Amino acid sequence: MKPFTYERAGSPQAAVASAAAHPGARFIAGGTNLLDLMKLEIETPAHLIDVNGLGLDQIEGTADGGLRIGALVRNSDLAADARVRRDYALLARALLSGASGQLRNRATTAGNLLQRTRCPYFYDSDLPCNKRLPGSGCAALGGYSRQHAILGVSEACIAAHPSDMAVALRALDAVVETLRPDGSTRSLALADFHRLPGETPQVEHALEPGELIVAVTLPPPPGGRHVYRKVRDRASYAFALVAVAVIVQPDGRGRVALGGVAPKPWRLEAAEAELPRGASAVATALLAEARTTRENAYKTLLVERTLAAALAEARS
Amino acid sequence: MKFDTPSAENPTDRLRVVGQPVDRIDGPLKTTGRAPYAYEHHDGFTGGFADGLARPAYGHVLGAGIARGRIRSFDAEAARRAPGVLAVISADNAGPLGQGPRNTAKLLGGPRIEHYHQAIALVVAESFEQARAAARLIRVEYAREAGEFDLAKVRDSGRAPQDEPDRRLGDFAAAFAASAVRIDAVYRTPDQSHAMMEPHASMAAWDGDRLTLWTSNQMIAWGRADLAKTLGIRPEQIRLLSPYIGGGFGGKLFVRADAVLAALGARAIGRPVKVMLARPLVFNNTTHRPATIQRIRIGATADGHIHAIAHESWCGNLPGGSAETATQQTQLLYAGAHRLSALRLATLDLPEGNAMRAPGEAPGLMALEIAIDELAEKLGLDPVELRIRNDTPVDPHDPQRRFSQRQLVECLRTGAARFGWAQRNPVPGRTRAGRWLLGHGVAAAFRNNLVMKSGARVRLGRDARVTVETDMTDIGTGSYTVIAQTAAEMLGVPLAQVDVRLGDSDFPVSAGSGGQWGGNCSTAGVYAACMRLREQIAQRLGFRDAAAVRFADGEVQAGGRVAPLADAVRDSELLAEDSIEFAGLDRKYQQSTFGAHFVEVGVDAATGETRVRRMLAVCAAGRILNPKTARSQVIGAMTMGVGAALSEALHVDPRLGCFVNHDLAGYEVPVHADIPHQEVIFLDGADPVSSPMKAKGVGELGLCGVAAAIANAVYNATGVRVRDYPLTLDKLLGQMPAPG
Question: Which pLDDT belongs to residue B51?
């Protein structure tokens, strides 16, 4: 771990101002991923701005009947919130399928969105990885890639985004609210928040330097039946090989988002239009652009079968 | 004490303390954090550490960034100048180092690199964080060389290990060809990591030319000898202490880089130094269970009698490394007149392969017990019945040699009844519960009972407290407790009156913890020392015939006379030392432990996820010294078997020559949610041939066969036969029917 300076910010404005004054600074919230990466010197911020005390830990109803989730709301608290459980069950289920109880008690809403891939090559600085060291190559492509992405990948990177929460948020049309160092705010649809790797896999999201997530807002409850199905090698405490989030309305329309298969939570609205034609048609549309390795080719079949099971459950 | 005839009735047969399910006596120390582990000997938490030693410095190990080649340049200047840094040790400045006979690769590499993450430097600093940060500043340039990392590719270059020649009986080829029913299949087991909770750790302190090393090691005498050889000093100059160990599973049978580098670091700076391997280093720096490719051919008569059986296994290791003896159980488990077993060892430049819990039998049974299941199906015979039909009371290669005890059939029958095996549908894929396809599987468990000389000394203090000292280790197995139970039984005192001190090279050399020999052998050594002490006590108290004296309830009695035990030590304490030496019974009799595993799994009909629903183990392992600690050993082993079956694998990158998944997120061992219900039954049966304790090993038996029982249950659930561990869903999915 490289030596770093540390401060506790007193307000969101102070936090972004400090970030602007300290190029390369990182915000720290739960620290469940950043600290590990700092110990391995994969992240080497010279300055840490602790945002835990900013009061961004409230869940509030919005004027239009949606929900505004503070950036610092812990995963455990979010999953236990009565409104979330009643109106956004998909989100509660996704959250509870992730990590462990201890980690969910620390991990925050914004931090979860910003967590980095769990590709093992990324975590070992003796091995090639374009995301960690641009230009060094992607060792996973042609290497151990059983867990890796099959959609949205590039020659430079096939790492998957590990979040469950983000998959549910994507299906729920969440919007990320931010504050910039100049004091301006903006709203980013979650769909536009994460970046695909292309030739720059080290760039993972749309935030500008010093820009702070202050909240995630959800539109009014979508209704329908919610199913979150996470597939993994052990029953708990493992990242998704494939995750399927579905919301199905009584009239058969619905939404589908995937986890564990792409560098971001994956959703194609065009594929959802195929819902009346059945799971197989939806899967075909979702997977049309899939690019697999020898080791992760099974994921296409797994998506198709898991989606079919999730839709059957939602319609039962 | 020489043990050369089966044990007659002896004081442990009373079973007043021995054989009772008492709690672990070290439990309170551990649950309150007061048991000092190797890395915890520092000020404020001395735990027996001699007062007055300076605060230790911290070492951080740098591992090689290539798998094979040479260090072209090594620049540690920036590291040496970094804050708090006291020394950087590498092959350049460490001085000449020897190599212990139990280590295959050098524990400090350079300039030659033999495997990925081989230690090449230790940075010593005032704080752990400073040492770790400075290690990142070392600039190393390598000349990378091609290596062999793919077992399948090199398998045909394998040769029979010198100490493991092929074994043949009869004419396998002809008998197999003539058999009415045959199976011939290839099975694969992956490289596995011990993944113990406590990483390898050591703290070293020099006093002149004498070294004290607190470490986490299963075998004190081996460790001391190999460390002395490595450092070029005499064993007597080393005191090695390992009183508490956070799991070993064979990964701590030998000294590793942490021990050697802590010693070198402490010598360089003239201060104690402690070193723990960072978790990501453990997987490639230390040892692992090597992968195998196994071919099994079995020929049977139409009524299910095995006529011909062949087991061949291929594995790889660094030059000079040993083979995984995956065929050994096949020589003893089932009858058959025509037999062949053969090991082939090829050269691989991966990290060193070595012992992991039940080496040989664990991966061997993963293959053999699927093969038996396949044979049963082909014969149309129940797999429990097939195993029973092929039981053998003698070593098939040497029919004069009987098993000292053999309860395989009883294990199978007891387990089948308890598990409800008769209700199983033998037709695969027919049992459904909601989204789950249910399956039931069985496998035999087998592990040899090894015996090793073991010593102890026992003191009866003037306060009538009993103190046992032996260099035996407790790797979480319950050694402290079963040793205390033995001494309490032998001397007729309550358990609370016994103190046990372990894991110190100043104590008599024991069998140590390995190969499931520790419990039986170390308590037998304590038995021997207690017999000596009983003679001394009897003499002090004026009893003429020590053999007739009875020790019970704090009293000594014979011939109608009763004397308080405390009277023997009114004036001075008594001290006795002895060891148990096993002399020939292990050659005259085949000593083995037996079991049967029954498993119910659910396989998700859509996703192919396998979850174990219930497990039953029936174990026959001689006298069970403590049913509670033994049960903990067996359920822990069963859990390890779930990992072996379903998730555990070190994934080799054959281009880079390393295990890619090297932390506990990437190397998936079972979590609590994976283990819903476990039951263990021990069959009664003291084995007087094994030792005066009449016990045998059980800690490894619990693992043997588990993974195959799960694999067989998965087949029963799905109809998909997977012969390549672990049975992850990607290996099932393509062959599973569409979910309905």
Answer: 43
- Contact flag A233-B668 (C-beta cutoff 8 Å): yes
B78 touches chain A (CB under 8 A): no
Instruction: Express each pLDDT in A122-134 by its tens digit.
Output: 999 999 999 999 9
Cross-chain Cβ contact B728/A306 below 8 Å:
no
Is A121–B729 a contact, with Cβ atoms under 8 angstroms apart? no
Chain A residue numbers with beta carbons less than 8 Å from the beta carbon of B136 are 2, 41
Torsion sign (Cα): B23, B27, B29, B32: negative
* pLDDT at site B739: 83
Contacts of B391 (CB under 8 A, 6+ apart): B334, B335, B406, B408, B409
Closest Cα in chain B, distance from residue A143 (Å)? 6
Cα(A31)–Cα(A50) distance, integer angstroms: 10
Contacting residues for B19 by C-beta, under 8 A, at least 6 apart: B623, B624, B625, B626, B627
**Cβ–Cβ of B606/A305 closer than 8 Å?**
yes
**pLDDT grade, residue A275 (50/70/90)?**
very high
Pairing of strands B432-433, B398-402: unpaired
Is B549 an interface residue toward A (CB < 8 Å)?
Answer: no
Q: What is the DSSP string of B609-636?
A: -EEEEEEEEEEE-BB-S-HHHHHHHHHH
In total, the C-beta contacts within 8 angstroms joining chain A to chain B are 110
Q: Kindly state whether A305 is in contact with chain B, defined as any CB-CB distance less than 8 angstroms.
A: yes
Is B700 a catalytic site residue?
yes
Closest CA to B668 of A281, A62, A232: A232
pLDDT band at B655 (very low <50, low <70, confident <90, very high): very high
Residue B45 has pLDDT above 70, yes or no: no
- Burial class for B234, CB neighbours closer than 10 Å (0-12, 13-18, 19+): exposed
Of B604, B672, B728, the CB nearest to A233: B728
Mean pLDDT (chain A) is 97
Contact A279, A193 (CB under 8 A): no
Taking a contact as any Cβ pair under 8 Å apart, which residues of chain B between 563 and 602 contact chain A?
A: none
- Cβ atoms of B125 and B134 closer than 8 Å: yes
Q: What is the mean pLDDT of residues B313-337?
A: 98
What pTM, to 2 d.p., does this model score? Answer: 0.98
pLDDT at B53: 57
Distance separating alpha carbons of residues B98 and B102, to the nearest angstrom = 12
Residues of chain A positioned with their CB less than 8 A from the CB of B608: 302, 305
For residue B661, the chain A residues in CB contact (below 8 A) are: 120, 144
Determine the average pLDDT of the residues in B293-304.
Answer: 98
Confidence band for B515, pLDDT divided at 50, 70 and 90: very high
For every residue of A184-218, which 3-state class applies, written as one string? CEEEEEHHHCECCCCCCCCCCECCCCCCEEEEEEE
Which residues of B559-608 form beta strands (DSSP E)? Answer: 561-564, 574-582, 592-604
What does the radius of gyration of chain B's CA atoms come to, in whole angstroms? 27
Measured distance CA(B337)–CA(B171) in Å, rounded: 8
Hey, what domains does chain B have and what are their CATH numbers?
2-35+451-585 (3.30.365.10), 402-449+591-731 (3.30.365.10)
Digit-coded pLDDT (tens) for B611-632: 999 999 999 999 999 999 999 9
Question: Which residues, in sequence order, are bridge partners of residue B298?
Answer: B183, B309
Which among B63, B83, B653 has CB closest to A139? B653
Percent residues over pLDDT 90 in chain B? 96
Q: What is the ipTM of this complex?
A: 0.97
